[in-house]
């Protein structure tokens, strides 16, 4: 079945055919048997890995206010109110695990709740560091079907309140310091007839570094 996702990821392709951790949102009827938008996590190392907590791997923290597989409501409205979740993946300086945080809703800026972590023992190359970080929308569909929509289902050129977006984009070093060079970010799209991505924008206000993405889909492997 088809699925559509938006997520942040950290990769290291040094060993085991590549290692990855992911957190984001998706619609995946093959996994959940419905079309709800859900928060999800994923990891892989070689031939091992899974979504959410469907195998030993990601550890849910006590007191987490968002769980892998949890349905999200309310949703954004086209041309109306936008809904966001703010998450961060950071490598724990002491333990070496990859920790997942959510910015506290209604709390002070920077207030974070630990959602869980991927133990460093799951990985070989990624246990040390990530070589690539990614903010992306993606779709998966059978070869015999057309592709589903991505994001809001509208192209990135429609911008605020209409196109889906990633905002407040940061990259961290192991000590928690922020480093981010926009000229090191490479936009990529492989079917610009069905999905597009904007340039990277910067605002001194709440949006920070941000970009827009998405599209109506309708692609197939035959066109």
From TrEMBL:
Signal peptide from the UniProt entry: none
Classification via PROSITE patterns: NEPROSIN_PEP_CD (PS52045)
Top-level taxon of the source organism: Eukaryota
Sequence ranges assigned to domain Neprosin PEP catalytic in this UniProt record: 1-220
Pfam families: Neprosin
InterPro entries per UniProt: Glutamic_endopeptidase (IPR053168), Neprosin (IPR004314)
This protein's name: Neprosin PEP catalytic domain-containing protein
Native source species: Carex littledalei
């Amino acid at each position: 079945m088809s699925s559509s996702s938006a997520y942040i990821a950290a990769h290291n392709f040094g060993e085991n055919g590549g290692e990855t951790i992911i957190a984001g949102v998706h619609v995946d009827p093959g996994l959940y048997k419905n079309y709800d938008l859900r928060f999800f996590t994923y990891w892989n190392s070689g031939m091992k890995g899974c979504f959410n907590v469907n195998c030993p791997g990601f550890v849910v923290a006590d007191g987490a206010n968002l769980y892998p597989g949890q349905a999200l409501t309310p949703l954004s409205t086209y041309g109306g109110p936008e809904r966001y979740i703010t998450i961060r993946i950071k490598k724990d300086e002491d333990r070496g695990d990859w920790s997942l945080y959510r910015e506290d809703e209604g709390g002070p800026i920077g207030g974070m709740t630990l959602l869980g972590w991927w133990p460093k023992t799951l990985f070989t190359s990624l246990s040390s560091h990530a070589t690539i970080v990614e903010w992306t929308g993606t779709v998966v569909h059978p070869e015999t079907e057309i592709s589903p929509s991505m994001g809001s289902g509208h192209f990135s050129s429609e911008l605020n309140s209409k196109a889906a977006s990633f905002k407040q984009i940061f990259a961290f070093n192991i000590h928690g310091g922020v480093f981010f060079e926009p000229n090191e970010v490479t936009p990529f799209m492989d079917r610009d007839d069905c999905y597009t991505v904007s340039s990277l924008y910067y605002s001194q206000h709440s949006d920070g570094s941000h970009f827009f993405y998405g599209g109506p889909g309708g692609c197939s492997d035959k066109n």
